[in-house]
Amino acid sequence: MLRSFLAGNVGNAIALFARLVTAVRGIWQGVDPTRRQRIYFANHTSNGDFVLLWTVLPPALRRETRPVAAADYWLTSKLRSFIGRDVFRAVLIDRNPQTRTDDPVGQMVDALKDGSSLILFPEGQRNMDETVTLLPFKPGLFHVAERRPDVDLVPVWIENLNRVMPKGEVIPVPLICTVTFGDPIHVESGEAKAAFLTRAETALLALKEGAV
Amino acid sequence: MNAPAEFSTLMLGVLGVLAFATVVAQILRARLGDGPVIDNLVARINAWWGMVALLAIAMLGGRGGVVILFAIMSFAALREFLTLTAKSRADHWALVASFFVVLPVQYALIYSDWYGMYSIFIPVYAFLFLPIVSVLHGDTDSFLVRVAETQWGLMICVFAASHVPALLSLEIAGFEGKNVLLVAFLVVVVQLSDVLQYVWGKLLGKRKIAPSLSPSKTWEGFVGGTLSTSLVGAGLWWMTPFSPVQAFGLSLIITLMGFFGGLVMSAIKRDKGVKDWGHLIAGHGGFIDRLDSVVFSAPIFFHVVRYFWSAV
Predict the structure, then answer these.
(1) Chain A: residue whose CA lies nearest to B274
(2) What residue segments make up the domains of chain A, in order of their start?
(3) What 3-state DSSP class applies to A190?
(4) Is residue A104 within 8 Å of residue A25, measured between CB atoms?
(5) Nearest CA to CA, how far is B82 from chain A (Å)?
(6) Whole-number Å distance between alpha carbons of A37 and A114
(7) Strand boundaries in B118-248, DSSP class E
(8) Which of A65, A183, B74, B279 could cross-link with A30 by S-S, CB 3.0 to 4.6 Å?
(9) Which of B72, B85, B91, B92 is the mutation pick for testing A, counting most A CBs within 10 A?
(10) How do beta strands A152-159 and A178-181 pair?
(11) A67: β partners
């Protein structure tokens, strides 16, 4: 009870802080911010990415949207674990196939079953190479989409956050960030994994052009 | 707060104009129905109410109020500017220093009235030290472009903008305690000039003055706006230490600098491929879209008044 109250306030405080630092603006280009079940899949350059995406969602949508995040990062300290589990209610995934007991696709499908929307970074890791716009997608997005073809897959381009807070820096530069939501895509019947992942990558990259 | 009596008179006038504009916009909306042009007009007028309220509160707050308001506007403008400039990871500390050291120090110097330092702090100290901070990281790609664009952002958004509150430190015989009126005079003339150039341009505008930079600017808008604004400026002589003729001349300088400032900032937007600097002020775009003419006129107005009228 106290924990969930605290978590709600910490969530709002984090969103306010993100707004103050980045003046972040959501551009709802392909979809409206409505309560449909969705998987938002976005580019990943900074640990703050999902915070920014979450911040531009209306509060009603925030409560039912859960980021998919790496357990090895979010369970390393008590504070991170509180923020990851209680504030953002992250679906925590073990990225190491040798040690994991849960199947990540199964975890995501379970979360969708509860009615939640998801925030997913299909690159699987932060993209640290400034000369590469997007790393090749991991197949997880395809497998989840195949099992839940009714859920909208919304590409989301997050612009500039890697400049606000480059890896290893502590103090953010308050530059303006944008979060652009594109047209939803779905797996077509009989569509091959590689073809779908390429289509998803293209849909995400297409959003970069208009994002300033 | 003891704002000079002239301030209340001016505010009454400004509120009257805004109320008139609001009524006209509503009549237009009733006659012509909703549309993007009317919506933009209403959004602009509503934003004006907000901006006038903020300015009035700041001016009633005296020196601290004006300094804090312009420090916040500088912050918002610098953020818009540096979002578009060239930078690399090597510049992180130079950028952090621009926002969290250079900007606050400049306004603290303005607040403490240290003319000898606030006039050179950014052109000398920031100019020399920020490239040193960047160069220590060893990244030489586009180095000159990166340091030059950061310095330009600081000069425009912080140094030039801070000359508006710097007007409060001038000492003009017979005008003691009324310096806030100089700020009001500058802001009213600059903003009125933007509005009147727009109106004259819409009514009579035919010949484009700079088609590659700003297609909406015309010779008719420029001449009509500049002259009519300067006449209104002359009519505001009673709130200044100037004679009507002097007020006319200073208004002309302000509007000309503002006009060309708008052109320069448009050229930068074109260069960077954006239409507006930002999205924070509904109908107007970003802070720099509203401030571009103020930042170009403020330092010149400051130095002309300082040279000819001020004791310090």
Answers:
(1) A212
(2) 2-208
(3) coil
(4) no
(5) 7
(6) 10
(7) none
(8) A183
(9) B92
(10) antiparallel
(11) A119
Per-residue pLDDT reduced to its tens digit, B81-137: 999 998 888 899 999 999 999 999 999 999 999 999 999 999 999 999 999 999 998
Å between A174 CA and nearest CA of chain B: 6
If you count residue pairs, one on A and one on B, with CB atoms under 8 Å apart, how many are there? 33
Q: How far is the C-alpha of A122 from the C-alpha of A124, rounded, in Å? A: 5
Chain B environment of A174 (Cβ under 8 Å): 75, 79, 99
- Write down the ipTM of this complex: 0.82
**A176 contacts in B (CB within 8 Å)?**
79-80, 83, 278
DSSP B214: -
Taking alpha carbons only, the member of B66, B310, B303, B296 closest to residue B161 is: B296
CA R_g for chain A: 16
CA distance B174 to B166: 19
What whole-number distance in Å separates Cα of residue B184 and Cα of residue B180?
Answer: 6
pLDDT tens by residue, B251-272: 999 999 999 999 999 999 989 8
A2-208: CATH number? 3.40.1130.10
User: Helix H segments across B61-142?
Assistant: 62-84, 92-97, 103-111, 115-118, 127-135
Best CA proximity match to A101, nearest among A92, A109, A88: A92
